[in-house]
């Protein structure tokens, strides 16, 4: 908690802070002087004296400690600590974007590390962070489709929902690309933004949906929505576990990939098709989309400060008063 407070603190007069070094010198001088003090009466032994340590003896260093604490608080108060609050105002024409994720079982294939879906989530999150002026939403689909997050400028919420995406979230298996596009179009159709896009990420094998991809594509064209399609996966063979009458066996399987469908959807809606064979390629694809869909946004930053020196001043004066009171009363030294 203290660390979080300190991260947002700035000092109006930071040149005052080096005075804290004087306190270190005071401590050094006090310790050295205390060691050099000698008794006024020298005796050969003290074994015959009773060991008596009064509370005054035990607290003899307390006034000096209080003085050091008081001076530290007063110097910090003089440096005028301020709590900084940063506010941003966004002006301009942002873009409304829906990130549409395929979460079918085939997206758990490990031709990406750790798998297709997790790699896609990580790269999509980086894309969101690079679009500060846009409204972004998230949809998912397998044999059904679902809105994880409506379009919003609250990117922390968007990132949280991307992180929550898991394969099997919609239970029923399948890859309903048409349904995924249709749900994404529904999130954007009432948008007043001049530019509306869907970034569809899938392995491109369509089956199991109620809305055919052709109809969903026409819906996007009707509402002026561009669809950027990303085919995730490679054409190489991988080992998969298969249940048979003899138990679980491992077979070689070629990962299916319908590139033609994704190309057609992108071309017909004015978007572009990309093929990602690994995580690095996927990152470059999102960077390309980031460049193709420029946002004309001006972000104005306002810094607001509130003074935090008051309690340091009160603490410093209070400690000085306590130190003086103790020194002149109960801990008073007599010659």
What features would you highlight for this structure?
Rossmann fold; 335 residues; 3-stranded antiparallel sheet; alpha/beta; elongated; 6-stranded mixed sheet
Domain count? 2
- Model regions low in confidence, pLDDT < 50 over at least 5 residues: none
Q: What would you give as the CATH superfamily of the largest domain?
A: von Willebrand factor, type A domain
Number of helices: 11
Which structural class matches the secondary elements? alpha/beta
Overall CATH class of the largest domain: Alpha Beta
How would you describe what is shown here?
This protein has helices at about 1-5, 20-35, 55-60, 60-80, 115-130, 155-165, 175-190, 215-220, 260-270, 280-290, 310-330, and strands spanning about 10, 80-95, 95-100, 135-140, 145-150, 195-200, 225-230, 235-245, 245-255, 275, 295-305. By secondary structure, it is of the alpha/beta class. It has two domains: about 5-15 and about 55-90 and about 300-335, no CATH class; about 95-295, von Willebrand factor, type A domain (Rossmann fold), CATH 3.40.50. The strands form three sheets. Strands 5-4-3-6-7-10 form a six-stranded mixed β-sheet, sandwiched between helices. The mean pLDDT is about 85.
List the helices and strands and how they pair.
Blueprint: H1 2-7, E1 9-11, H2 20-36, H3 55-58, H4 62-78, E2 81-93, E3 96-102, H5 116-129, E4 135-141, E5 145-152, H6 155-164, H7 177-188, E6 196-202, H8 213-222, E7 225-232, E8 237-244, E9 247-254, H9 259-269, E10 273-276, H10 279-292, E11 296-307, H11 310-328
Parallel strand pairs: 3-4, 3-6, 6-7, 7-10
Antiparallel strand pairs: 1-2, 2-11, 4-5, 8-9
Helix pairs in contact: 2-4, 4-11, 5-6, 5-10, 7-8, 8-9
């Amino acid at each position: 908690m203290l660390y979080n407070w300190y991260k947002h603190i700035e000092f109006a007069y930071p040149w005052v802070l080096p005075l804290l070094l004087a306190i270190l010198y005071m401590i050094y001088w006090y310790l050295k002087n205390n060691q050099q003090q000698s008794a006024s009466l020298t005796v050969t032994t003290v074994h015959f004296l009773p060991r008596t340590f009064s509370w005054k003896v035990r607290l003899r260093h307390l006034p000096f400690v209080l003085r050091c604490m008081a001076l530290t608080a007063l110097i910090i108060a003089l440096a005028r600590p301020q709590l900084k609050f940063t506010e941003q105002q966004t002006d301009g024409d942002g873009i409304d974007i829906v990130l549409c994720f395929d979460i079918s079982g085939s997206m758990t294939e490990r031709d990406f590390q750790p798998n297709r879906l997790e790699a896609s989530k990580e790269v999509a999150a980086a894309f969101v962070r690079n679009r500060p002026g846009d409204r972004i939403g998230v949809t998912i689909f397998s044999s059904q489709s679902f809105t994880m997050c409506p379009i919003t400028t609250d990117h922390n919420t968007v990132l949280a929902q991307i992180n929550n995406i898991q394969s099997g979230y919609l239970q029923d298996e399948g890859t309903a690309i048409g349904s995924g596009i249709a749900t994404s179009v529904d999130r954007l159709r009432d948008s007043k933004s001049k530019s509306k896009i869907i970034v569809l990420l899938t392995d491109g094998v369509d089956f199991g949906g109620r809305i055919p991809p052709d109809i969903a594509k026409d819906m996007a064209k009707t509402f002026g929505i561009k669809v950027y399609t990303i085919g995730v996966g490679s054409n190489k063979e991988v080992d998969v576990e298969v249940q048979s009458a003899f138990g679980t066996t491992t077979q070689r399987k070629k990962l299916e990939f319908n590139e033609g469908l994704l190309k057609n959807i992108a071309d017909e809606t004015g978007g572009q098709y990309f093929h990602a064979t690994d995580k690095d390629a996927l990152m470059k694809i999102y960077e390309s989309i980031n460049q193709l869909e420029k946002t004309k946004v001006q972000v104005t930053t306002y810094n607001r400060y509130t003074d935090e020196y008051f309690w340091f001043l009160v603490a410093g004066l209070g400690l000085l008063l306590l130190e003086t009171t103790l020194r002149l009363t109960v801990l008073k030294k007599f010659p």
